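lol forgot to send this yesterday, sorry. struct tokens for the thing we talked abt
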């Protein structure tokens, strides 16, 4: 049925759906379609929402038609790019899902080192296209992540120390606003909108193409070393010391996880993207020698191999619950809490990551983009993953308890892409800090009725 807040302009649902279908090049999927259930499945298996319709857009005109129809029928509207956001904002109950996953055009200009890509492109597809020319931009650490959601929320990844956040490399974007206009956002056109979409999420419209500045990235040094869990305190203290002097070309994460054969491990995961790989080998030698590790899987490899390294750890369809925040410091006390909590982990699939942020991503002024998490050296994230729905209460409780225990060490900031859907408006404000009021003002201009609200919402 068509769900509205007041009487629809077209009281006959069948006629209304046919009216929408007639405007589309793409596909209108209704609940009685044999592909409905497959089309509403997203990365997080815990999200089980049932929209009234899914519009699989083939082009910009389809997006405009869907937006206009959703506005006229007063439908709740969700937007799906890669569908990888753990909070499940790509799906809604009883409303319309505007699905961009079939919009996958990619055009690379190797001379200008730029690329224009549509919002259905996944990072694995994007990296494959740009790496054909030896080029890349900071992207997600799992290849099935969509470029759209990651970019609009800021975008962290292995190249961020050298080349900044994903949104720092955005040159322009085309988007459809709540009133159905197609606008360009760039430093020259609608600069306020361009500022807002670089970190402000999907609050201001549906981006239908992204233009990025690319960088030369050939083979890198990547991979990980593994240590036994009983050494977690020593490993995290080494990680803290080692990262304090890391060059911009080197990004290192620390992670607590379980190996495929069921052994709890502490990993140091890295990517060195400098052009002098011999210098990189020299820089990371202390990391490989420390311990020594139980396993050393570090080596020279194509950037594509590094980007797919964590895919197996986060497959599509698992149940997932996240909690995250930036740290004021990775103190001895914080390390002790992390040790005590990970020893109580309730699922062998769960990962706890500490990401080191430095260099280019932190050298941008906090008010230069809506994405403002530029001060902290460490980002802390619990990614709880499990197989069966009946296990959910156990793993969610452990995650929340861990998060509560870590609060004394948190800064005021949180990466908006890591927020879950139960955290409330105060946490959204925390993600934007002093930028929030400017974002509200821009939201008032481009989406005064909060049409785009299935997101970490900025209320106009």
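and heres what i got for the seq, position by position
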């Amino acid at each position: 049925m068509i769900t509205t807040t007041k009487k629809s302009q077209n009281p006959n649902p069948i006629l209304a759906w046919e009216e929408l279908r007639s405007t589309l090049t793409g596909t209108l999927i209704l609940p009685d379609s044999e592909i409905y259930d497959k089309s509403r499945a997203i990365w997080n298996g815990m999200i089980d929402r049932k929209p009234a319709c899914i519009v699989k857009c083939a082009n910009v005109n389809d997006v405009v038609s869907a937006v206009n129809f959703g506005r006229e029928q007063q439908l709740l509207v969700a937007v799906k790019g890669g569908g990888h956001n753990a909070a499940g904002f790509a799906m809604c109950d009883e409303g319309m899902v505007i699905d961009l996953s079939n919009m996958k055009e990619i055009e690379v200009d190797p001379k200008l080192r730029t690329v224009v890509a549509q919002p259905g492109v996944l990072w694995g597809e994007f990296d494959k296209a740009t790496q054909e020319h030896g080029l890349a931009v900071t992207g997600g650490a799992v290849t099935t992540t969509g470029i759209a959601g990651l970019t609009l929320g800021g975008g962290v990844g292995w190249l961020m120390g050298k080349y900044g956040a994903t949104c720092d490399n955005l040159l322009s974007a085309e988007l459809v606003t709540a009133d159905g206009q197609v606008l360009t956002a760039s430093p020259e056109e609608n600069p306020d909108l361009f500022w807002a979409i670089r970190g402000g999420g999907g609050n201001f419209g549906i981006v239908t193409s992204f233009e990025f500045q690319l960088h030369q990235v050939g083979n890198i040094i990547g991979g990980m070393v593994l240590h036994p869990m009983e050494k977690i305190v020593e490993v995290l203290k080494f990680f803290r010391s080692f990262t304090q002097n890391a060059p911009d070309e080197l990004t290192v994460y620390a992670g607590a996880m379980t190996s495929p054969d069921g052994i709890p491990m502490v990993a140091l995961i890295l990517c060195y993207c400098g052009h002098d790989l011999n210098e990189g080998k020299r820089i990371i030698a202390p990391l490989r020698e420390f311990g020594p590790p139980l396993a050393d899987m570090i080596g020279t490899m194509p950037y594509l191999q590094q980007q797919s390294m964590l895919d197996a750890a986060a497959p599509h369809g698992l149940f997932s619950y996240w909690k995250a925040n930036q740290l004021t410091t990775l103190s001895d006390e914080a390390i002790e809490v992390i040790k005590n909590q990970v020893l109580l982990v309730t699922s062998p699939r769960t990962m706890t990551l500490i990401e080191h942020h430095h260099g280019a991503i932190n050298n941008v002024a906090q008010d230069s983009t809506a994405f403002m998490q530029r001060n902290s050296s460490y980002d802390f994230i619990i990614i709880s993953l499990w197989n069966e729905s009946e296990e959910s209460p156990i793993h969610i409780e452990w995650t929340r308890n861990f998060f509560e225990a870590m609060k004394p060490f948190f800064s005021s900031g949180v990466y908006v892409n890591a927020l879950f859907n139960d955290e409330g408006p105060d946490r959204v404000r925390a993600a934007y800090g002093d930028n929030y009021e400017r974002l509200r003002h821009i939201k008032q201009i481009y989406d005064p009725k909060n049409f785009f609200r299935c997101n970490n919402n900025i209320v106009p």
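The first helix runs from residue 13 to 22. anyway ping me if u want another try
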